[in-house]
Amino acid sequence: MRAAIRERYGSVDRVQVRDVDRPTPTGDEVLVHMEAASVNRADLDLLGPEPGFTRLFLGLRAPRDHGVGCDLAGVVEAVGPDVTRFRPGDRVFGDMYPFGLGSFAEFKCAPERAFLPIPDGMSFEHAATMPHAAILAVQGLRRRDGRTAGPGDKVLISGASGNVGPFAVQIAKSYGAEVTGVCSTDAMEFVRSLGADHVIDYSKIDYATIGKRYDWILDVHGHHSLLAVRPALRRNGVYVTLGGPTGRLLQAMAVGPVISMASSRWMGLMLWWKPFKAEDVATLAELYAAGKVVPRIDQRYPLGEIVEALRRVDDGHPLGKVIITR
User: Fold this and answer.
1) DSSP-assigned states of every residue in 96-132
2) Can you name the residues that pair with 30 across neighbouring β-strands?
3) What is the pTM of this model?
């Protein structure tokens, strides 16, 4: 079978598509024939890796897992003898982040708990966009204590046009929030088409300095320091960042709790992420069925052009998700 492989850390040029042995499922494993996958910012971060301290978990000198790719949607090809939930022919999807990556391949073998059935009426391509990015969006709009952005809240999504942002805009709107999206000049019309009430061009306006305040700020990639963005939060407001450069992440983890304890505002890194949580997948399925969340696809690439697809996301220009097909 063909699979995208990287044996060393580095840029997207380290990724190669090679012929490798097709795995055989054992125990509770399921072998899935990939129909579609999608590229996430996390796929690029893991190549570096970024932040650097994640080598402690991924492998100090080289990655322990050579596969690439998180999001996967496909058809069950074979199952191990202990599998109880699936059988060949079932349509499934999942986030391979906790299971050795490897969604950019013709086949992926993982424990059956890695997968859930694709909801009726959802295409493989739409299913492939959701496991990583859409779950981050749902959980980024909900604090660990269960509080969520709600009706009448002023919500700002920084990074509204890429992987997570389009889902976050639509989900916040479905909650009844007044949504402001922050994006580049070229993406403004796209973000409006998602349902954003207001759109800010970050190349011309810094939302943290214009005197407007928000109940909830979801910063997809840590574009501001916590101290810089604090004035843009209302009393009892929430600022959640999902990622970013090493310095921003460390500040969110170290300074965020101090600000949160010393003021009425909560600020910090989303440390409560639970990959592909079944309850959140069910929420997305309901929103999708109601037409309130519609995945936006930027471009499609065959598996053999995975490097070009990764570059498309790395350049920071896609409007929505980049899809990989076999």
Assistant:
1) -GGGT---SBSEEEEEGGGEEEPPTT--HHHHHHSTT
2) 79, 110
3) 0.94
